[in-house]
Amino acid sequence: MRLFRTAALSALLLATAVPALPAQAATLNVSTAAQLKTALTNAKAGDTIKLADGTYSGNFKTTVSGSSSAPITLTGSSKAVLTASGGYGLHLNGASYWQVQGITVTGGQKGIMIDSATRVTIDGVTVHGLDMEGVHFRNSSSYGTIRNSTIYDTGNDGRGMGEGVYVGSAGGTSDKSDHVQILDNTIGPDVGGEAVDLKEGTTGGRVAGNSFDGRGLTGANYDDSWVDVKGNNYVIENNTGKNTTNNGYETHTQQSGWGCGTVFRNNHSDLTDATGPGRYAFNITNYNASSCKVTIDSSNTITGGRSLTNPGIPVG
């Protein structure tokens, strides 16, 4: 009896001491649109979807997430082109912990849409030829990053819109697409709306090291600057801009208590060709030293234009 109990106990300890092994991460080599759709549906944490050069026609969507230690990667060269005829080129819908690298997205309504997803990184992509926005972080998609990417030729539906990078949603403050970083990108020319639009309800992001070319700004719907900040506590630094219909950077209060706390530093604005009535590097429409402070650091510079800031805004 004692030997039986010892053997049973040993078997139990062995069974509980060896956990099930996690699924092995895979590299999924893709060369057709059908294969890509299947890979986006079935990807697991840690997987890499590798696109061969070529054209992938359709709308591509995923709803699966990676993890903080094992993100899912979608990668290819700029010759791997997702081409849509409407809708979104690539839609990460609730799909957190993704890395999208190198590919081109063109055609359709919007290029890359990130909805309700955290820690999505867009790196080295090209986005162009769209009816509306290039890249949109929406529905509380927090801690996202777009970097080293090129966005141009957006807003082609004739409505005078089409931002390069759009963060949040207009008309309320429930979209908490917070802490989004927009780093070292080239945005423009022929971007119909602002290069970057930071909506009310969003907070704590950073826009740094970008090159903005506003040639093609329509001026419609107040789209008359490179960056429009309606969220709170952003840092806008080390950017360069040229060609704008009016101003370089603007802040606005669309909802009470928003559009405040932004710090602008070491940005260079070339307003040589600006034609609007403002022609300020920084048009701060909502400054209040106690309730809505905006900081314009003396490291910012301007060429041409009317003045570094609109009257009454301190610089220091």
Summarize the structure.
It comes from Kribbella voronezhensis. With 316 residues, the protein is mainly β. 8% of the residues lie in helices and 35% in strands.
What does this structure look like?
Residues 89-166 form the Right handed beta helix domain. Residues 1-25 form the signal peptide. This protein has helices at residues 2-17, 33-42, and strands spanning 27-30, 48-51, 54-57, 60-62, 72-75, 80-84, 88-93, 98-101, 104-107, 110-115, 121-123, 126-128, 135-138, 145-147, 150-152, 165-167, 181-183, 186-187, 196-198, 206-208, 211-213, 227-229, 235-237, 240-242, 249-251, 263-265, 268-271, 280-284, 295-296, 301-304, 307-309. With 316 residues, it is mostly beta strands. The chain has a domain at 129-309: 3 Solenoid (Pectate Lyase C-like), CATH 2.160.20.10. The strands form three sheets. It has an eleven-stranded parallel beta sheet, covered by helices on one side. α2 (33-42) links the parallel β1 (27-30) and β2 (48-51).
- Strand residue content: 25-35%
Termini, distance in Å? 86 Å
Tell the overall outline: globular
- pLDDT < 50 runs, ≥5 residues: 1-6
CATH class of the domain at 129-309: Mainly Beta
- Looking across the biggest beta sheet, what order are the strands in? 1-2-5-8-11-14-17-20-23-26-29
Give the tags.
single chain; 316 residues; mainly beta; Pectate Lyase C-like; globular; disordered N terminus; lyase; Pectin_lyase_fold/virulence; Pectin_lyas_fold; Parallel beta helix pectate lyase-like protein
